[in-house]
């Protein structure tokens, strides 16, 4: 079997399985297992595939048809030009979150030795992306409750040689360990999907941890609780920055206004969807 024949076979199987963006996924797979970019794959279409490579790719095909996310299968996923270890039990980094990192960076890059905390840290992609780009000696904390996700957080911090302090704890309990007026910025991409909507998600998303998805009855539980418990930990003039779900910008903005935050900003993502809400204490 040639690379072209295997490629066409997998394309047809992915299409029949109704996998979205299947051609893009297959390009990722071929690059991972053959080291072939899209152009390189075209050049080598007539090369013969080894029996072992064919077996490996067919195993991947079976896993994807079962709804296992491609990111989990590959074990590595890129976010903002950085590679992160991912797998069962941790939320996959998504491009949507880039906006949250960018807005946080704009604020803290102007400060000297900023104190930063990333709540519901997951893979650590937010904290690590900031750590790798900030040049002002930040002091960064990443808090993650799930033991499975925390393993990925710790592994990624070690992989990137970051100086982030990883904390395996419930964000609704650990807040009391920090003194008031301590942080320059509190950042969070919390669970924000309504509980009743979980069952309607794509089967791949359902394979991700429920803990990282379920935002309660109205999807706003974490925004309220974080604002209630963590606002006092923020310095006067400090920023809070939330990633939000579609249609939540006005409600999250109102939560911040009710906690006396000023200069509320709503920032859109690349698709012109409201994606981040920030406020100044």
| Mean of pLDDT | 93
Strand portion? 15-25%
Largest sheet: 7 strands, mixed
Span of the ends, CA to CA: 63 Å
* Rg over CA atoms: 21 Å
Q: What strand order characterises the main sheet?
A: 5-4-3-6-7-9-8
Shape: elongated
Helical region count? 12
Q: H/E element string?
A: HHHHHEEHEHEHEHEHHEHEE
Low-confidence stretches: none
- Strand-pairing-aware structural class: alpha/beta
Number of strands: 9
Helix fraction bin = 40-55%
Please give a structural write-up.
The protein is an alpha/beta fold and 281 residues long. It has twelve helices and nine strands. The protein has helices at 3-16, 22-34, 38-43, 51-65, 70-74, 98-108, 125-133, 147-159, 171-174, 203-206, 221-230, 249-258, and strands at residues 76-79, 82-85, 115-119, 139-144, 165-168, 183-188, 234-243, 262-268, 274-280. Strand 1 (76-79) and strand 2 (82-85) form a beta hairpin. Helix 1 packs parallel to helix 4 (51-65). It is elongated. The chain starts with a helix and ends with a strand.
Summarize the structure.
Helix content is 41%, strand content 19%. By secondary structure, the protein is of the alpha/beta class.
Features:
281 residues, alpha/beta, 7-stranded mixed beta sheet, two-stranded antiparallel ribbon, 41% helix, elongated
SSE diagram, text form:
Blueprint: H1 3-16, H2 22-34, H3 38-43, H4 51-65, H5 70-74, E1 76-79, E2 82-85, H6 98-108, E3 115-119, H7 125-133, E4 139-144, H8 147-159, E5 165-168, H9 171-174, E6 183-188, H10 203-206, H11 221-230, E7 234-243, H12 249-258, E8 262-268, E9 274-280
């Amino acid at each position: 079997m040639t690379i072209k024949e295997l490629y066409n076979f997998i394309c047809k199987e992915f299409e029949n399985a109704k996998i979205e963006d299947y051609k893009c996924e297959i390009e990722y797979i071929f690059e991972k297992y053959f080291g072939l970019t899209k152009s390189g794959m075209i050049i080598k279409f007539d090369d013969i595939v080894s029996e072992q490579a064919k077996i490996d790719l067919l195993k991947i095909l079976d896993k994807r048809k079962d709804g296992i996310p491609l990111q989990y299968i590959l074990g590595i996923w890129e976010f903002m030009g950085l590679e992160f270890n991912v797998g069962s039990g941790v939320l996959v980094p998504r491009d949507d979150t880039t906006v949250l990192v960018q807005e946080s960076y704009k604020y803290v890059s102007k400060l000297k030795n900023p104190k930063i905390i990333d709540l519901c840290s997951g893979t650590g992609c937010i904290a690590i992306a900031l750590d790798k780009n900030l040049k002002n000696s930040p002091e960064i904390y990443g808090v993650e409750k799930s033991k499975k996700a925390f393993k990925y957080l710790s592994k990624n911090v070690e992989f990137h040689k970051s100086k982030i302090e990883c904390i395996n704890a419930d964000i609704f309990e650990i807040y009391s360990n920090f003194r008031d007026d301590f942080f320059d910025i509190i950042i969070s991409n919390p669970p924000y999907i309504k509980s009743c909507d979980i069952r309607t998600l794509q089967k791949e998303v359902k394979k991700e941890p429920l803990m990282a998805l379920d935002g309660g009855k109205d999807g706003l539980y974490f925004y309220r609780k974080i604002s209630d418990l963590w606002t006092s930990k923020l310095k006067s003039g400090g920023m809070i920055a939330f990633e939000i779900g579609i249609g939540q910008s006005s409600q999250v903005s109102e939560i911040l206004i009710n906690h006396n935050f000023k200069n509320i900003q709503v920032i859109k993502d690349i698709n012109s969807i409201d994606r981040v809400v920030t406020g100044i204490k």
